[in-house]
Specification:
The longest helix has 27 residues. The protein has about 375 residues and is an alpha+beta fold. The protein is built from 8 helices and 15 strands. The radius of gyration is 32 Å and the shape is elongated. The protein has 2 domains: about 190 residues, Tachylectin-2, Chain A, CATH 2.115.10; about 140 residues. Helix content is about 35%, strand content about 25%.
């Protein structure tokens, strides 16, 4: 196995720059290092890496790239009969691309024999050195892989360039296999695994914001409206003229229709946003029972959340304990929403853990502290 070795941190080490490691295994599980290929010529003095090995007639041909030269990095070739001691091609570097669409750089060599010819797939960048793309060169079947034997087939345009959202500004690290007369390429996208936030993360973040706002600015102040009013605190519901009228055991809770409409509208928007990931899930679970159960569960939770919110907004008597019980039903349904939403990604076991562990923890802690499993100590 041939692999890249990062440069030594010790600057006094005589070997500087990236290198190539050599390891062997008898079972493909346990590996031991048996050698290294280190910079030996001026063109690779800053390093060499990204090896691609090809065995032809009991000879190992190794294609690798120079490192640290920016636009001047290119593909090199070496060969060995024992897989450890390599002889470099006298024409190294053996390949760098032509064409005005690229900067002349070539890295990440991948070589495969296909229909009697050798194809070299390489990564390069545009002239501004910003966009990484794929090109391909070809050599005849009887080649010695020297520089003159390679013909660049991507002289006018790249064979593959970033187009999909997850590819960002880069496609690289191609690996090609042949199956039933066709070549299949696997490659990496986005420079250095640049952060790519999936839509589900945005949705969960928006849901978290809505939940925090509804719980604190709306419901939290609604259940404490009487006390806040007496203390002279100006809260969000009070801005919309929500108030408690009268004293005694049955004071009236006055909630203007404008406030009710606003809160119900916010809740509906929250639920609509929550269903957006279904579009994302569908391509993975289309036609399966998982998608049906997921949709059904979210619909049931949505109904509970919406009905509880409507019931809360139509309270006419300020009874704090009853109000909090209705809010608690909505809160529990809302809490279940996130684990159910991501259940196709985390699996059934983790979903159950996320749903029930906090509840079990709540009961145990309350029992230990207050003696009542359903009531927190104050």
């Amino acid at each position: 196995m041939y692999y890249s070795i990062q440069s030594y941190k010790d600057k006094t080490n005589p070997v500087q720059g990236w290198g190539i490691g050599i390891a062997e295994s008898k079972d493909l599980v346990n590996w031991r290092k048996i050698g290294e290929i280190i910079p030996a010529n001026s063109y690779e003095s800053k390093g060499l890496c990204a090896p691609c090995a090809l065995v032809i007639d009991k000879k190992v041909h190794l294609f690798y790239q120079t490192y640290g030269n920016g636009k001047n990095d290119a593909i090199c070739h070496a060969w060995s009969y024992d897989g450890i001691s390599f002889t470099r091609n006298s024409t190294n570097p053996v390949f760098r691309p032509d064409g005005s669409w690229n900067c002349g750089r070539a890295i990440d060599a991948e070589v495969i024999n296909f229909k009697g010819r050798y194809y070299l797939y390489y990564a390069t960048r545009d002239p501004d050195y910003k966009i990484q793309m794929q090109g391909v060169a070809m050599a005849p079947g009887n080649t010695d892989f020297s520089r003159s034997s390679w013909k660049d087939l991507s002289t006018d345009n790249p064979m593959l360039k970033p187009e999909l959202p997850w590819e960002k500004d880069c496609i690289e690290g191609a690996s090609v296999i042949e199956k039933k007369g066709k070549l299949y390429m696997f490659y990496a996208g986005a420079y250095n695994n640049i952060l790519s936030i999936p839509p589900l993360v945005y949705v969960l973040s928006i849901l978290g914001f809505f939940q925090l706002w509804i719980n604190t600015a709306i419901l939290g102040h609604l259940k404490d409206i009487k006390n806040d009013s007496e203390c002279g605190v100006k809260t969000f519901p009070m801005i919309f003229k929500v108030k408690v009228d009268g004293d005694g055991k049955t004071p009236k809770l006055i909630i203007p229709m404008g406030f009710r409409t606003l809160v119900i509208f916010i809740q509906i928007i929250n639920l609509i946003v929550a269903f957006l990931p279904i579009i994302y899930y569908k391509k993975f679970y289309d036609g399966s029972i998982n998608l049906f159960l997921l949709s059904f569960s979210l619909i049931v939770l949505s109904i509970i959340i919406l009905v509880s919110m409507i019931k809360t907004m139509w309270f006419r008597i300020f009874e704090r304990n009853k109000l909090m019980k209705v809010m608690a039903v909505r809160e529990i349904a809302t809490y279940f929403f996130a684990p159910v939403l991501i259940s196709p990604l985390i699996g059934g076991v983790m979903t159950l853990i996320y749903v029930f562990f906090p509840l079990i923890w709540f009961i145990i802690v309350n029992k230990l502290i207050s003696g009542d499993p359903m009531r927190a100590a104050i």
